[in-house]
Amino acid sequence: MSAEAVARIRLEVVPSADLLTQLPAAFDTTGSVSVTCLPHHGPARTVEASVSLARLGYHTVPHLAARSITGKAELHSLLLQLQQAGVSELFLVAGDRRTPAGPYAWSGELLEAVNAYSPDFSIGIAGYPEGHPQLSQKQLSSSLGVKAPLASSMVTQMCFSAEAISRYLRTIRKAGIELPVWVGVPGPVSIRKLVSLGARLGVGRSLKLARGTGMAGALWRRDDFLSYDSGRLIREVHQELAGDPLFAGFHVYTFNDLGRLPGLLDDLRALQPTTTLASGNTSIPLFPAKI
Ligand SMILES: NC(=O)C1=CN([C@@H]2O[C@H](COP(=O)(O)OP(=O)(O)OC[C@H]3O[C@@H](n4cnc5c(N)ncnc54)[C@H](O)[C@@H]3O)[C@@H](O)[C@H]2O)C=CC1
Ligand SMILES: Nc1nc(=O)c2c([nH]1)NC[C@@H]1CN(c3ccc(C(=O)N[C@@H](CCC(=O)O)C(=O)O)cc3)CN21
Fold first, then answer.
1. Is residue 274 part of a domain?
2. C-alpha of residue 225 to centroid of ligand 2, in Å
3. Cα 231 from Cα 57, distance rounded (Å)
4. Is 32 in contact with 8 (CB distance < 8 Å)?
5. Do 221 and 227 touch, CB atoms closer than 8 A?
6. Closest ligand to 202 CA?
7. Range of the structural domain that residue 48 is part of
8. Domain-located, residue 213
9. What is the domain count for the chain?
10. What distance in angstroms lies between residue 211's CA and the mean position of ligand 1's atoms?
């Protein structure tokens, strides 16, 4: 039997008004997409967009932000809508809402509530290669220890350093966390957007470091905007992790900047296929197996 290739890609998108018309032009509907749940949007918007994307054919992974959900009744209604659309995978995160809207103050509580509703959802949780500006390493590792047994994958926070990503993966493996990991990388996005959102999302430190260590080589000018090109980061991560059975693939933070996506997808196709398959991944392989 031939080995199956695993360099996979998942695009993270924001549920904007024009997403459903814009995305299929840039990314085939057989692909895999992850839909954010931002505090000012709320979970209903995420679920509505996810249901529509799933109906278009995408393997769709909605984010549910614990701190944005008002209670069990809302949670069950959201989960039912997702089940009816065939959505079986979720990404659970605390969410950036300052005060919780209901009983779920962090993602561990939401994970238990989702699992009690149905054990059939596969659940992704967040990982932080460069830590988190508001949370200590101790907080991060203890919450990870609680969540990991109920989760089926991890997605890493946006990070610009292949070295930091590898180091983080070694650390969590040593701690006994054996989840398949989607490595989060920025998509081709304008520097202005990256810098303004990056600082707000808590990846300012990573951005600063990246600027000092080679981000300059990843910048290029498009339509008079400076843009970031993650091609090199992707190649470095792939070189390091290809063949690791727990490397699920690349989770690309697109910020809905879809114009240059075809270039990024070409870069990804140019990578050498790897030879192992992480279990439990349901997205479409980017590089079909060679028979
Ligand atoms: N990595 C990503 O892609 C995303 C990260 N985030 C943000 O990262 C942070 C952590 O999320 P998770 O990894 O799911 O953490 P978590 O739910 O596993 O919580 C980890 C620890 O931090 C505490 N905590 C989490 N959010 C908090 C908040 N807003 N205020 C005070 N304490 C908080 C929890 O009580 C817990 O002790 C949140 O602020 C989250 O919104 C949000 C969306 C996506
Ligand atoms: N702390 C944190 N919170 C997050 O929500 C988050 C992360 N980190 N890390 C990675 C991704 C990236 N996320 C985001 C966050 C904001 C936009 C964004 O485009 N925000 C626009 C508004 C979009 C709209 O309202 O339609 C903005 O200008 O804020 C995109 C992706 C979500 N994720």
1. no
2. 20
3. 27
4. yes
5. yes
6. 2
7. 9-189+228-269
8. no
9. 1
10. 26
189-203 mean pLDDT: 80
Pairing between β-strand 247-253 and β-strand 9-13 as defined by DSSP bridges: parallel
**What pLDDT was estimated at residue 255?**
92
Protein residue closest via CA to atom 29 of ligand 2: 197
**Which residues, at least 6 apart from 285, have a Cβ–Cβ distance to it below 8 Å?**
4, 5, 6, 7, 8
Residue 283 lies in a domain: no
pTM confidence score: 0.90
Closest CA to 252 of 83, 61, 43, 92: 61
**Atom from ligand 2 closest to the CA of residue 202:** 1
Place of tokens 């040593």: 174
SS3 label, residue 95: coil
The verdict on residue 210 lying in a domain is: no
Q: What is the pLDDT of residues 237-258, one digit of tens each?
A: 999 998 899 999 999 999 998 9
Residue 224: pLDDT over 60 = no
Question: 206 pLDDT band (50/70/90 cuts)?
Answer: low
pLDDT at 215: 57
Q: What percent of the chain has pLDDT over 70?
A: 82
Choose which residue among 130, 135, 138, 142 to substitute to test ligand 1 binding: the one with the highest number of ligand atoms within 8 A of its C-beta: 135
- The CATH code of the domain that includes 91 is 3.20.20.220
